[in-house]
Amino acid sequence: MENKLYLVIPCYNEEEVLLETAGRLREKMVSLISQNKIDEKSRVIFVNDGSKDGTWELIEKLHRGNKLFGGINLSRNRGHQNALLAGLMTVRDYADMVISMDADLQDDINAMDEMIDKYLSGTDIVYGVRSSRKKDTFFKKATAEGFYKIMNTMGANTVFNHADYRLMSRRALEGLAQYGEVNLFLRGIVPMIGYPVDVVYYERGERFAGESKYPFGKMLSFAVEGITSLSTKPIRMITFLGFFIFIVSIGMLIYSIARHFMGATIVGWTTLMVSVWAIGGLILLSLGVVGEYIGKIYLETKSRPRFIIEQFLNDEI
Ligand code: UDP
Ligand code: MG
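Above: inputs. Below: predicted complex with magnesium ion.
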């Protein structure tokens, strides 16, 4: 089996961590090459997601210094998922297997050995799964785990505690390339591809420098994006809710008529106010959810490009 490995690493304002990351990855790649696990033409490709700091200049410098490093410069900031996709789609013509990871190396790079072993024994997709979140703050842990649970009940099936640290074979990437949607949510799409899959467990460390680029607000909108771009279950839930409220209203009707004939029709102002607000809120919420989907349809029909590459630095081309 061919074994040319490409690493794809999205970077947004990562100048504080980039050199350290590059150093650690070079060491790792050299050791993998010397063990004959991967081809000597393997590469580390940094995707610059429209950083405002000197990230791209650093990537260019790394590339000039060592042909192991390459870079993709996006025309502007498109967010982590699109940057990752840009990287995967660009390198799939050169690589036999691709591993994606974050620039801050929170994902243990020593898990790569096991991923590669699994690839070599015929697995197409290997998910890196966090065995624990001891190093995360309580808030991050609780919100992130809640995130997976809510997503799964809403119909977006993702691998629990797996972020975007994963190995994909070339044929899995070819499969991914056939999903032409603009609102692409990688963590939900990759499990749809099929082929033999496996997982590798690792401990997630702390960011060694710089700040998280995923504050709570971004994570929340990421969850909404994920759910609405993967499934229509929330709309179905609204339908059921509407049905349920309809049943309740029939009950209320019977109750009101019965009370009327019993002669006790002093209408409570409180009940009226509460129900007006409750129903009004539900209607607005439902409209909002339906609107989210219409917005998605609007964006899909335009089929705008998911990313635009300004420059691709790679010694092989
Ligand atoms: N990232 C990116 N574009 C963005 C935001 C983040 O490419 O708009 C990259 C970032 O450089 C990092 C990865 O996505 O390599 C994950 O970000 P971060 O480590 O800040 O997220 P966290 O680990 O806190 O969830
Ligand atoms: Mg991080």
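The radius of gyration is 25 Å.
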